Amino acid sequence: MLQLHFREMGQGAPLVILHGLFGTLDNWQTLARRWAEAGHRVIVVDLRNHGRSPHAPEHTYALMSEDVLGLFTQLQLGPDTTLMGHSMGGKVAMRFALDHPTRLGKLVVVDIAPRFSDMRHQDDILAGLHAVPLAALENRQQADEALARYIRQVDVRQFLLKNLYRREDNSFAWRPNLAALTAEMDDIGAEITAEQPFVKPTLFIRGGKSDYVTTEDKLYSIPVLFPNSQVETVVDAGHWVHAEKPEEVFGLVKAFVEQ
């Protein structure tokens, strides 16, 4: 169990937010501040091997669920807590809800289903990150040029470059543990299973232009594990629903946690 880095704001019923692969808690800062202003105690978290949280060679959902349990215990979060996660963070949230159903009241999962996710589409991203010559790097522009040979989408490169930082000796480094994430990529795609379903209220938010949550998921994989769930589609949004359509995500989550 690792002690996770987090940031807390606001007062009220707790809302804990988990980012996706290669993300950090900063990805959710703007929305977190709005939910805090709306009357919630919001805790945004860096998962293991990401952001400012500790690194470890293992990166499984069982272990990440236990990391989150440690955070719930540390912050004395009660059963009125809503746990929300996007993509990989959504699978962590599902695993936690199924493992520790009495520790939370509601679950929100953003653009991911419990089924196995083929992670081969991350190969170019991993290749690009590994190709950045950190030791010789003089500025972020050089890092972007190295990434561009593998990743054509500017917005994806900008998202990834948020993980680049300068050490005290002025050299560059990545915040994610690339060695562990590369080795554990199959585990990151793993299916979430359980003998008993999570029967408390659950909201799935999917992007209308994303294929991470399919019609088949809505009919089968989601209801089997989360029978008290609803699936809301944000039209004209891709996988990063919260970044593309923040107003819609803000409203959906606020209405769900307050009902």
From TrEMBL:
GO terms for molecular function: hydrolase activity. The keyword Hydrolase applies. InterPro entries: AB_hydrolase_1 (IPR000073), AB_hydrolase_fold (IPR029058), Epox_hydrolase-like (IPR000639). SUPFAM superfamilies: alpha/beta-Hydrolases (SSF53474). Residues 14-246 form the AB hydrolase-1 domain. The keyword Transferase does not apply. Keywords: Hydrolase. PANTHER family: PROTEIN ABHD11. This is Alpha/beta hydrolase. It comes from Hymenobacter glacieicola.
